[in-house]
Amino acid sequence: MPPVHLPEVAVVDLDTCDRCGLCLPLCPPAAIHLEGNDLTVDREACTGCRKCVAPCPVGALAMVPA
Amino acid sequence: MTLDVDVLIVGAGPAGSIAAAEAAREGPALHVMLLERDRAVGAPVRCAEGVGDAGLREFADPDGAPWVARKITRVIFLAPDNTEVQVAERDVGWILDRTRFDACLAAEAVAAGADLRVGTEATDMSRDGDGWWRVEIRGPDGRATCRARVVIGADGVETMVGRWAGLDTRVPARDMESCAQYVVQGIDFDPDAIYLQFGDQIAPGGYAWLFPKGDRVANVGLGLVALKTDGRNARQYLDAWIARRYPRGAKTGYTVGGVIVHTTIRQTYAEGVLLAGDAAHMINPLSGGGIVNAMKAGRLAGRAAARAIAAGDTSARRLSVYHAEWMRLLGDDHLKYYRIKQALERMDDGFYNGLARTANAIPQPKRTLGRIFAHALVRHPQLIPVAARFFV
Question: How are beta strands A8-12 and A32-35 bridged, if at all?
Answer without folding.
Answer: unpaired
